[in-house]
Amino acid sequence: MDKREAITASNLGPVVSLLAWIMVASVLIAVGIKFTLSSVILRRWITEDIALALATVFSIGFSVSISLAVPNGIGRHQTTLSSDQLKSLQKAVYSASILLVLVSSCAQASILIFLYEITPRLSHQRLIYSVAGFTALFFIPSFFVAVFPCRPPDVWEVLGSQCIDQSFFWRTFAGVNLVIESALILLPAFMVWPMTMDRRRKSIVITGFAARLAVMGAFAAQFYEAQSLETQLLDKTFDTWRYHVTTVFVQGLSIITVCIPYIRNLLLGMESGMIQTGHFRLPDRHGLEPEIPLRLNSLNNTGAKIA
């Protein structure tokens, strides 16, 4: 693990480790609130919680892996590292890469499951199936490439010459995920905006899902840094530290933004003896709730409303 090394011009790896554990803490807080809503207030867990729980476990594993890579050479000049350090570094980065793919896919699956469960409309469900199918088709080859980036048996030797073009793969990964994240933002807007509710309430619901614009920003940064590596790989262990920072934000924000719609409703719905935030109540998918719920019900077969 990171031994609290000083951050210097020739040792920038601790920045990656520090941000990774800050992101882990943020993820655990957000997911904890989300699970509180499901298990205490709603008195049950819901289907997408399984995918979110898996994403959280993978996120913790990612942070452990990236933290193990830091004292072994991330952000330090390759000429200063021993062969044992380089070996440990490559294994840690290899593990983190696999977990990054898993975190991103599980977080996206959680949102798609949620959207599918709250809509009764066949047209919406078909759109969700289409996005889910595209996401699954992209996940399979991405996971395979992340697991086998180099020629066996040393598939973890990512600094070697017998590997795929890492920069190209991660540019592709970030670019396609930008498309998927765009769909995950547009789908809720498409589902909610035609509903019979005032624009303010529509905007509040849509804004919760639009928080995934932060994930798009992280993927855009990952794409940029992966592209920059093509011209900066004279010192592979030192030049990649900024790229690893972007992956930390990609995996962390992917999970946190899944929880934001629930956290927003929790904060709006909480009441105390001193402060009353309003009449907003938390959604219950099996009952009628006023104000800002998240379930769509058909209305006289002619339209739909938020119920």
From TrEMBL:
Record key words, sorted: Membrane, Transmembrane, Transmembrane helix
InterPro entries linked to this entry: Rhodopsin_dom_fungi
Chain ranges passing through the membrane: 18-37, 49-72, 92-115, 127-148, 168-192, 204-223, 243-263
Start and end residues of each Rhodopsin domain: 37-267
PANTHER family: INTEGRAL MEMBRANE PROTEIN (PTHR38794:SF1)
Protein name per its UniProtKB record: Rhodopsin domain-containing protein
